[in-house]
Write a structure and sequence with these properties.
Elements (H helix, E strand, L loop, with lengths): L9 E3 L13 H13 L4 E4 L11 H15 L4 E5 L5 H14 L3 E4 L9 H14 L4 E6 L1 H4 L5 H7 L5 E6 L5 H10 L4 E4 L5 H7 L3 E4 L6 H12 L3 H18 L6 H13 L18 H18 L8
Length: about 300
């Protein structure tokens, strides 16, 4: 049986960390890693959507992962998303991730061209072969990648013994059940959509990887804790509170990642810079709502993570 424990928990998707000129900031990468380590998350998912990977060079992505590994000090599960829109660059990032000692690599399918499933399988297997010591996780996010992970493609990928499961960011919770059943008892499926973490756990997800986990990890850690204790009504209340915060953050003109990075600067004193163009940056008109979202997070943490109601 595969040891699944290192993937069972709350794993924030790591945010891109820039300096004031928009360059990767190794210092800020390490500060954010240290902050999330201190808050008790299970691991980090590095170089995915939240990391703005499609707007970064392979050299930049290597730098980010190197400094995450340096600051995490072997105390967290590290999953490196290595997909680029060509096989050679993806394999280069996979080999680099293995050289650093990460726990697993992950990849979306190639985007833009609609490839046949055998070509997608060849692409994923080539990436996996470039890092033969690492677990491989398929990243299923059809609403952005333009390609959905079908059961026939998943069956084909399961022929590769390094394929351990799926980071599932499709919206139907049922997809988690299908991948779990198809993959068998050793298969790992991580819930992707943050707004349905509790539903994903209830249907069998091993844990969660989420883009908003980094800005309010306390809430998601509490959801997981209460779920594990069978206290579903309390967990659902916190899920609703987190969702309301997400909906409010999404009302800003600036991109969601710009909003969350600013909130981290406000709440935790860790500056992460803005987002990389063409993602829209925050405007001055956004700032009252950003401050409101920060206060919503503070209030939810006080209510659900520090109050007597949620203590044993």
């Amino acid at each position: 049986m595969r040891d699944k424990t290192k993937y069972q928990g709350i794993i924030p998707a790591f945010y891109a960390c820039y300096d004031e000129e928009g360059r990767i900031s190794p210092e800020r990468v390490e500060r954010l890693t240290g902050l999330l380590l201190k808050k008790g998350v299970k691991g980090l998912y590095v170089g995915g959507s939240s990391g703005e990977c499609i707007y970064q060079s392979t050299a930049e992505r290597k730098t980010v992962l190197e400094h995450v590994m340096k600051a995490s000090k072997g105390q967290m599960t590290i999953i490196a998303h290595v997909a680029c829109n060509n096989t050679a660059d993806s394999c280069e990032l996979a080999a680099h991730a293995q050289s650093l000692g990460v726990d697993a690599i992950a990849a979306i399918p190639p985007i833009y061209f609609h490839l046949p499933e055998y070509a997608i399988a060849d692409y994923w297997n080539a990436i996996s072969a470039a890092a033969p010591e690492l677990d491989f996780i398929i990243y299923n996010i059809p609403q952005l990648a333009g390609t959905a992970l079908t059961l026939p493609l998943f069956r084909k990928m399961l022929e590769n013994p390094r394929v351990i499961g799926v980071k599932n960011s499709s919206m139907p919770v049922q997809d988690i059940q299908m991948f779990k059943q198809e993959g068998g008892p050793d298969c790992i499926v991580m819930n992707g959509p943050d707004e349905q973490l509790l539903a994903g756990l209830a249907i069998g997800a091993d844990g969660g990887i989420g883009g908003t986990y980094g800005v309010m990890p306390e809430l998601y850690l509490k959801i997981r804790e209460l779920f594990d204790k069978g206290r579903m009504e309390e967990a659902r209340e916190i899920q609703y509170a987190a969702d309301e915060i997400i909906y409010n953050m999404c009302k800003c003109h600036g991109n969601l990642y710009a909003v969350m990075k600013k909130i981290i600067a406000m709440r935790d004193g860790v500056e992460l810079g803005s987002v990389r163009s063409p993602l829209p940056a925050l405007t001055q008109e956004d700032m009252p709502r950003v401050a409101q979202c920060a206060e919503q997070i503070d209030a939810a943490i006080r209510k659900y993570c520090e109050g007597e109601k949620y203590e044993e």
